[in-house]
Amino acid sequence: MPLRRRRTPHDAVHHPLFARAYARWSPVVDERAGVAAHRRELLAGLSGRVIEIGAGNGLNFAHYPATVSEVVAIEPERLLRRHAVETAVRAGVPVDVVPGVAEALPVKSEAFDAAVTSLTLCSVGDVRRSLAELRRVLKPGGELRFFEHGLAQGRPQAQVQRVLDRTVWPLLFGGCHTARDPLGAIEAAGFEVGVYRRLRVPARGMASPASSCVLGVARRPAEPERRSGP
């Protein structure tokens, strides 16, 4: 099925210093902090056509099961997209890396069986619009798999996160915000949230402002049955 290309501004997201650093240390952090295991859990059991937003340098690609027929991976940052293309060649399933932003996905409506957002909602420019786009491109009843970090449950850390979000954190970490509420945003976007669990990454050691995470599954509601007759 061909992609519906929307016009995306050249380098709509451009964080060259962060992207260069992230491409170097993220694979190491994935293994040492146990993030790779969470990625495998996130993607287990998926099948059919999948869209992934904010694919970064492609750390999810190795964990897609063979039952997935195609992954369309959206990544707006030029350097990370180039790394993702290289990673896609080694993936066990077909992966098409596409430039674009989450707020205006360059694909047709109701074209995908599942969608994946993985440590991405923290950095999109508009969370509401991004989730509305994911709902648009999912088939009725399609799954949204999410693994996101956000506002901590404890008050002291939450206060620190809010202060950092208003000051240095987004500037240093590629537009990342630590005080967002991804689960609440998913529910507000009209998804039916299913099983989920909260976790800390890393599970042990010094906590960071981005260590409070949630991993789970939501669905685009199935279309209501149409009644015939008067």
How do the helices and strands line up, and which of them pair or pack?
Blueprint: H1 16-32, H2 35-43, E1 48-53, E2 68-74, H3 78-89, E3 95-98, E4 112-118, H4 127-137, E5 138-149, H5 155-165, H6 169-172, H7 182-188, E6 192-200, E7 212-219
Parallel strand pairs: 1-2, 1-4, 2-3, 4-5
Antiparallel strand pairs: 5-7, 6-7
What does this molecule look like?
By secondary structure, the chain is of the alpha/beta class. It has one domain (16-219): Rossmann fold (3-Layer(aba) Sandwich). The protein is built from seven helices and seven strands, in the order ααββαββαβαααββ. The chain has helices spanning 16-32, 35-43, 78-89, 127-137, 155-165, 169-172, 182-188; strands spanning 48-53, 68-74, 95-98, 112-118, 138-149, 192-200, 212-219. The chain has a seven-stranded mixed β-sheet with strand order 3-2-1-4-5-7-6, with helices on both faces. Helix 4 links the parallel strand 4 and strand 5 (138-149). The model is unreliable at 1-10 (pLDDT under 50). GO terms for molecular function: S-adenosylmethionine-dependent methyltransferase activity. Keywords: Methyltransferase, Transferase. One of its GO terms (biological process) is methylation. Residues 52-145 form the Methyltransferase type domain.
